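Cross-check.
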Amino acid sequence: MASAFVIDTVPKKSSFAGILDCILKEFNVYVIEKKNSVAKILPSFPILFIIYASCTLGTFFMLLPHEQVDGSPVPIVVFKDRPIAFHGFLVSIMLSFTCSFSALMIQHRPRVEIFFRVYAMASMISALVILLYAATRWGFRYRPHLVEPKIEYE
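Predicted model, tokenized:
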């Protein structure tokens, strides 16, 4: 009596060689499909990194102490007296998260996926450039005290 759950792709003979041939055929089809897909050109690692980095940076800068500058909260650590740079940083982080998440969700449309991947990477790079700009301006704000002050004797 034949079972109702017999898979058509499994060969009728139950030998190890027949099952192995079936698995290799399925694997070859998978490799051919992946060879022609966008995933080979642009791997998903940068997109996942962008998602994690944007969540981490956004949360980190929201937890820092803030001060009110022109009616909006600005972190006092890096973006002190630079609310425009902070808002540009936040917009870039949000755009990078949204585009990378959309690229992961829309993998069946390669042109749209490439569009979102490129914009996610570009907005993450712009966010890092804004952060680097603010960090260098914040780091060089105070003059270094490399020379000892002159003491005047009376």
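The first strand starts at residue 66 and ends at 69. The chain has five helices and two strands. Passed to J.P. for a second look.
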